[in-house]
Specification:
single chain; Methane Monooxygenase Hydroxylase, Chain G, domain 1
Amino acid sequence: MHTKTNKKPLLARVRRIAGQIAAIEKALEDEAECAVVLHQVAGVRGAVLGLMDELIEGHLHEHVARPGIDDSTRSAAVDELMDVIRRYGK
């Protein structure tokens, strides 16, 4: 639902992240300084965290907080989100 309605900006974020990953690969191939690569990796981490935040927010609004959702559906959505958060935190 929210990933379908926000498909275009989500894909744009993913493509930017892919570009950042490609830049890290190129930096390593070109034997860039360690600090340069570390900054690039930190940027990717921030970008992925931002994507995750956006997806979590959409999930909460669409599958947990939206009025009219029955309790079992809401509970299942919470469980799904908690599974993802636990896995992401490892």
